[in-house]
Design brief:
single chain, about 35% helix, elongated
Length: about 160
């Protein structure tokens, strides 16, 4: 593979990669192929099945026990493909409330938290999502998520200790 910046040969390695596309979430992709240019320093990370990665990440986020944090709320809203206004309308709150949830100015209430989780589970069906879990989520204060994901051709994206 040639560097798109300078044209020199890239050196491939297998390493863990902090996935920055999901701002605010600590996501580590485990065992990714990373190509580095020894000449100019350009870095390219090969991320297979991006849609599957986001589906796996959404699944992990909605399964966590603690109340959703600001970055998780923003990620899940975007995962659903909703603007802030559309999301506010669907969930039955003011757009300013959604903004406060997503900036950390106000925690999301337990009912809205559960509704968002159900929306994600319903919009993108998740196999064996235990509905009983919803009675246990959102009772604890928001805690930062540290998530690791590994990609395998046969299994797709699976959770891995970060």
């Amino acid at each position: 593979m040639k560097c798109v910046e300078c044209g020199h040969a890239m050196k491939p390695t297998i390493e863990n990669h902090r996935y920055e596309a999901v701002a605010g979430l600590a996501v580590t992709l485990v065992g990714m192929r990373v190509n580095r240019c020894p000449e100019c320093g350009e870095v390219e990370v090969e991320i297979p099945n991006l849609e599957g990665l986001h589906r796996a990440l959404a699944d992990l986020v909605i399964r966590k026990r603690a109340r959703l944090g600001a970055a998780e709320i923003r990620f899940l809203r975007k995962y659903l493909g909703l603007s802030g206004s559309d999301f506010a309308e669907r969930i039955g709150v003011d757009r300013a409330t959604v903004s406060k949830w997503e900036t950390g100015g106000q925690p999301m209430g337990t009912t809205a938290d559960r509704l968002l989780r159900l929306m994600v589970a319903h919009e993108k069906p998740i196999e064996a999502y235990p509905i009983k879990t919803l009675t246990e989520v959102a009772r604890d204060d928001a805690a930062p998520s540290r998530i690791g994901l590994r990609f395998a051709k046969k299994e797709g994206w699976t959770a891995e200790a970060a």
